[in-house]
Amino acid sequence: MPSVTGAAAATTSAIAPTGSPSPSPALAVPSESESPAPSLRPASSYPLVNSCNPASVPSAIAVTTPASGADSSIALHVPILMYHRIVPIALAGDSLRGLVVPPETFAAQLDALAGAGWRTITMATLANDLQARRRPPARTFVITIDDGWDDGYTYALPILQKHGFVATYFVIAGRIDLPSFLSSAHLQALVAAGDEIGDHTMDHVSLPSQKPPQLTYEIDAAAARIAQVTGRWPESLAYPSGGVDNEVVAAVAACQELRVAVIEERLVTEKPETTGKPGASQSPGTVATAAPEVSETWTDRFVVPRLRVSPTTMPANLVAELDRYATG
Fold first, then answer.
1. 281 in a domain, yes or no?
2. Sign of dihedral through CA atoms 297, 163, 105, 240?
3. Which of 57, 80, 97, 134 gives 20 to 30 Å between its CA and that of 38?
4. How far apart are CA 152 and CA 195, in angstroms?
5. Which of 294, 308, 281 minimizes the C-alpha distance to 83?
6. CA-to-CA distance for 202 and 228, rounded, in angstroms?
7. Spatial separation of the C-alpha atoms in residues 203 and 234, rounded to whole Å
């Protein structure tokens, strides 16, 4: 295990974020088997930096975080969808089936949302809105894709671009360039398409079980590695398996480049006669539980809930779930 040096001091100079632009219409959509060219320097060839100080990766665009955040007088209600794998079942290996959404299902879900007038922003843009106490346009939502599998590029990206959507990819930094995971070139192509690359720790371990030095390493070294590869410091983090406690939140907040973090929830699919609330379709034998309330404030920006989308989530029910939070 690499040596751990602790969190760095606060940012001394930073470049204000501009948010995540819409995908460029000139960007070629990759085929399902295509990889971007030319191949780039592998992530493992960069020196390990266990610091969230932008001075440690001077070539990367930094993030501005205020010394004191905005008050919590504004609450946004932007649904954040959680996906993991967008890949045919036959190619998913031993991945948990509940986390594998076939491309045709993903496309149908996005077709329904686009048809209902929904538009996307990234987690970084949501953080901008929270910081500025600015409400995004009505029917705005976020797509997040966890773990950094390469099908996020080969399968998910073309579908996102077809709809004019962007996503936040939460990448396990220690797996960049490994077989079946996103490569350095993939990550740069995603950033060029207007997508965001977020921090999903270095090794995808349970953060509450880590001692302070290792906790800092998992968060900070992952952020720096992503900055080395993409040229942009990550602004958001997803806790592995949703594991979080007060010490973990404090460690994330100490990495001043990170401005928002998400926990794992699941999009519940209860029968109308049970709760009267719309949701996604439910597999037989699944226990129904209440869907999390969609709400984001600056005060609670490091414990933002998400709605988990499953392969059995019917497009119409997904739209109905998000419509609970539509405004305007």
1. yes
2. negative
3. 57
4. 11
5. 308
6. 14
7. 16
**Angstrom distance (rounded) from CA 183 to CA 171:** 11
Q: Please name the residue that has the structure tokens 């070139």.
A: 185
Residues 247-305 have pLDDT tens digits of 999 999 999 899 999 998 755 453 333 333 333 333 333 333 445 578 899 999 999 99
Checking if the pLDDT of 38 tops 80, the result is: no
Do the domain assignments include residue 19?
A: no
Residue 166 to residue 144: CA distance in whole angstroms: 9
3-state SS, residue 201: coil
Alpha-carbon span 200 to 172, nearest angstrom: 5
How many whole angstroms from its chain centre is CA 285? 29
The whole-angstrom separation of Cα 117 and Cα 183 is 33
Cβ–Cβ under 8 Å, residues 22 and 194: yes
Question: Token pair for residue 316?
Answer: 């119409």
Q: What is the pLDDT of residues 197-210, one digit of tens each?
A: 999 999 999 999 99
Q: How many CB atoms lie within 10 A of CB 322?
A: 23
Contacts of 276 (CB under 8 A, 6+ apart): none
Domain count, the chain: 1
Q: Residue 116: which domain range?
A: 72-323
Q: Give pTM, 2 decimals.
A: 0.83
Domain assignment of residue 141, yes or no:
yes
- The answer to whether residue 67 is domain-embedded is no
Q: Is the bond preceding 38 in cis, omega lying within 30 degrees of 0?
A: yes
Q: Which of 63-72, 185-194, 242-251, 284-293 has the lowest mean pLDDT?
A: 284-293
- Mean pLDDT across the chain: 82
**CATH (domain of 242):** 3.20.20.370
